[in-house]
Structure prediction request, 844 residues.
Amino acid sequence: MLKSRFSGLLFQIIALALSFGVVSLILISIDASPTEAFRNMFKGSFGEMRKFAEVLVAFVPLLLVTAGLLVTFSAGLWNIGVEGQVVLGAIATTWVYRYFLESDLPPALIITLAILGGMIGGAIWAAFTGILKVFGGVNEIFGGLGLNFVATALTIYLIFGPWKRPGVASMSGTVPFPDEFSLPLLANLRISPWALGIALIAIIIVFFLLQGTYFGLKLKAVGKNFRAAYLLGIPTWQYAMYSFLICGALAGLAGAMQVAAVYHRLIPSISSGYGYLGLMVAMLINYQAIWAIPVALFFAALNIGSIQLPIVMKLDSSLSGVLQGVLVLFALLVEGARQKFIKKGQNT
Amino acid sequence: MNVEFKNVNKHFGNVHANKNINLTIPSGSIQGILGENGAGKSTLMKVLSGFIHADSGSEILLDGVPVIMNSPADAIKHGIGMLHQDPLDFPPMKILDNFLLGMPSSFFPNRKEATQDFNLLAKEYGFSLDPENYVDSLTVGERQQLEIMRLLFLGVRLFILDEPTTGISTAQKEKLFTTLRKFPEQAMTVIFVSHKLEDVESLCDRVVVLRAGELVGELTPPYQTKKFVEMMFGKEVTLGERQSAPVGETVLSLNDVSLEDARLKIKNINVEVREGEVIGLAGMEGSGQNLFMRACAGLVRPVGGKIQLKSQDLSGKSYHVFKRNGVSFLPAARLEEALVPGLTLTDHFVLAEEPRGIFIDRVAGQTLTQERIQSFNIRGTPHTPVESLSGGNQQRAELALLQNPLSLILLEHPTRGLDIESVIYIWGKLKERCKQNASIIFMSSDLEEILQYSDRVLVFFSGKISQPLDANKTSVEELGELIGGKGWAEIGGEHA
Prediction:
């Protein structure tokens, strides 16, 4: 019975309950009411259409990043550099937009080019991590982390240097692009159905890529046993590079969406930490693509819902981050416990 | 130390691994425990060394006193130490540091004193180990010696050795046996677990045989091999008639090939391998066979000379080019190099086949897997992850992954750790390949196996390679001497 999927789900629900419990304790310790906090978070994310649209705005980049990370995780790679790949996607998209600022091309074509540019930008940034790993022997965690800092510095340099607003540069970013450069939004809401559609298509493609193709199976073989995969005839380092390129392109796509559908310009914190949050989602769903949509939506809702906390209850909005972190830890812990039970069950 | 098992039972789920074992091992004896794979030997030893608990009602008495051991550390406190099949040491550490591990000493060990103790102990048993050297520079046999010294120093009075002669050279085996024979003089007890009749016969004072979890019999010298085999398998087994496939054209030829790695240089190898031929590589572990075999697979690039496969020059080409040209390499480390833990049997068979299109046809993959499972007698289902297969079944799965047709099959220790029936089965499959014109090169530390299944034998001794010897005209004794570095002048024409 413990082996079944049902028990896996049951244990994950236990993890969820435990994390809400821990966060409740934290709230009680500062004399705040947990029920009220959770109710406010729920109201702040699903309470009204406008707020739910905000959740979807956060959901799009999170889902794209998660989709990309599922590919690198399958290849056994810890692509921490995903954060920087989102940033480079946004920078590349901004560059394409600026390049065509005065052109007479139809806006739809420019938007398409800008988005493709973002994917290429993210892929190139990921390729750096890959090259460092494959040819330089630099662990992808260190390489990626280093490149994240470079990416942030590059954004700041561009905003305060070559791409600064006329007059005085500011943390509010570059000059906003004209309205026709934006992906179409739903009336009175900030969500673009195009962005949502692209993110959903991306996760579906990744799901089938990993589940049903030779490419996906070979990627998993490389991830689980590099040496044996090589001896089985799989070109291992090439596959590691492919996975970086795919993940980078999807992260770059997330960055492109931030520019083309949300901020309409480059801002210093353009990635909003979705790269790191995506790592948490990927770990929480135990690298199974099928769970990416609900969990990414849940995390996005926590992020948006917590915005209510400082306004209504004078609590810090980082509470959502605490809940997300605790949840990942408990999920891993509970899964470990379950494996132990299964082993015990087999031994006696 | 006197050991007594009283009604020891152990269940794993539905499997009754040890059935009512009653056995007394007198102090100062060398007790052999014999049985095929899965007979329950390892389980019984794990119970004795504190790794696992026996079912309730089971009792273990040391010198007449019932004891309960909850961990290997507990067992060591009681004076019981186990030498595992794969040495449990720490390769990147210095020998001395490794020796100090588990020592109940102060926070800052006295290295000077420890070095003296170490050297004294090494001298007493005739081991030549440098305490300042690193563990990963040692052979398996030397690592065993280190482990024995460590256990002795911890005050162990009862040694359990699990298949200790696997993967070590004949000379190292002799040394090990000499060491073990000294133990009874000091009232220490040895339990020697093996499935090798020859080893058990030459070393043990008394032998018990386990079959399917039960203790089926006890024997004392003089031993009769036939009796052992009957007890182990319930029937008599022989390796069968030697059979050779007719030998055809040259498949692989090495011209003046020179190989090098960090430790070894082999110069000017000239060998030709023909269709349907089986070449056995004999030698101590690390005498150059691995290097030779990996060069034939394209995994090691020769520093000089020419490697030709069916008149095509493959010198300096990569492993994947060799593979496309019909060369297959089966490494000994199954879960490290040959199979991918976490993937199922179906996944493996799908990976090994040429991809058709982009999407995997799961149904076809499963049908294929089911066929192979049946024809290779693998105990598992298409959905079984490879790591949960037993060693023999993993080996059969490796063989089942081989493509058709093949020109050359390279095998490292193809039957290591397998019971005799699996050995016969696997060689049956390999000989079928020879009939389909594939050539085989394999290495083994079992000389009987080499003589039984090869057509020609190459002997390796610290980077020297003998001329190919006709397997019909040589003997275990001759091979044994050559492996130990004797008699090379007589066979003449050695390379380098």
Observations:
- Chain A has 14 helices and no strands.
